[in-house]
Amino acid sequence: MGQVCAHCGVRDRSLCGSLNDTELETLSRLGRRRRFARGEVVVWSGDEASLCANVLSGVLKITASTEDGREQIVGLLYPADFLGQPYAPSADFTITALSDVELCTFPQKGFERELDDHPRLERLLLQRTLDELNHSRAWMLLLGRKSAQEKVASFLFDMARRLDRANCAGRTDTFELPITRGEMADVLGLTIETVSRQLTKLKAAGIIATPTVREITIHNPAALAALAEAA
Amino acid sequence: MGQVCAHCGVRDRSLCGSLNDTELETLSRLGRRRRFARGEVVVWSGDEASLCANVLSGVLKITASTEDGREQIVGLLYPADFLGQPYAPSADFTITALSDVELCTFPQKGFERELDDHPRLERLLLQRTLDELNHSRAWMLLLGRKSAQEKVASFLFDMARRLDRANCAGRTDTFELPITRGEMADVLGLTIETVSRQLTKLKAAGIIATPTVREITIHNPAALAALAEAA
DNA sequence: CGGATGATTGATATATCTCAAGAGTAGTGG
DNA sequence: CCACTACTCTTGAGATATATCAATCATCCG
Questions:
Q1: What are the angstrom distances between the C-alpha of A115 and each of A199, A210, B53?
Q2: How much is the pLDDT for B231?
């Protein structure tokens, strides 16, 4: 097993977790660690060379945009998530680092060959892609049919659940938002002002608190869940 | 090769197209033709037995709903499309026949075994799922960031392109909508009235015409495309 | 022909956006 | 360590796109 994988923090949670040490040989030779600073674009929509990678640390956004600059965040990537589009001739979305980020990158063609050689790797990618599709469809309900209040409540709930899972330490009712208000707006299909107002409302109702602007404390998860589904 | 596949209209366009006659043996024994009438629900969200199937004829919708009954169509299924969620413990969305429909159904577990046995089948499913994910993400931009006018124009454009592809006869500028205004509204995250008004606007501008309420003629594709991206 | 369903059109209400100002917060350099 | 600058966030007032409510009009089918 290559040097790279030996001290990989996400080894068992990433796609690579499906491979044993021997199988990792070739993949590890293919992988290159790369760092990106906050704000840097990792993949431009339209790029021909569609990179594949595992996220080692940090958070990234996947965005779609209209020509006149309106932006929709269509996905967030966390450590152990897979990034990229095997088999795609070009990238369809732009991927940007939201924090300083460390990736384990693979050339697309090389990664595709690994998929050929390792059925378990492909199986896991299929399952993850199916999950992503489900999540993205659930988000379509939010974008198309939910009110601003429901959107913000759903988002906080989703985020709490997701971070709770990463944070295996156990459930905390306070977590740090990995994104700004503006980015929340881009996830929810709202404006920054509307997001801010909804957060204020939730605070006034005693359902949440914001110790700092980036931290969220959920005081009343039940009420939050109720608002997420019908407000 | 079983009786079933011998006269299958979508044999070469469906997932099964990846298999040769010998490989189709077991799959064909697994498959059962089933008909559903317009309006019938094929899969209920929450169903434990998640059915897998190929669409032989007709159109179906995949929907997500809030508890209080608001509905968002998150996908449409056409002939040769694959339906179902291998590996999912239960269905996440409801699938309903929009017209009379004919399916070639497989039990989930059986289909999963076929995926084990036929890498090419699995590969094709992976590629289709990746495509679906892309399409669904592109739709998130529409739902979150586009105006009603852009939504309707985008929808017509998308539909024309999609039907053009199926309709290998060549490009026609008139096509039949497979769905009602209400269903269009559920695809676009709008109300039925707003959809209707936007169509009226497009007619008034001479960009489209509606010979019958279910038919759309595109007089000015360039103008329609322009409205789809920035209006 | 008549009833049901779906589509259009109109009048009004309202949630969210837009524009604008001010208040936090964080990073930088003296 | 403080002050300066640049962001980001919050809050307000007003504008507007879309939803809601309601009536009429087409279309289909028995």
A1: 44, 44, 25
A2: 47
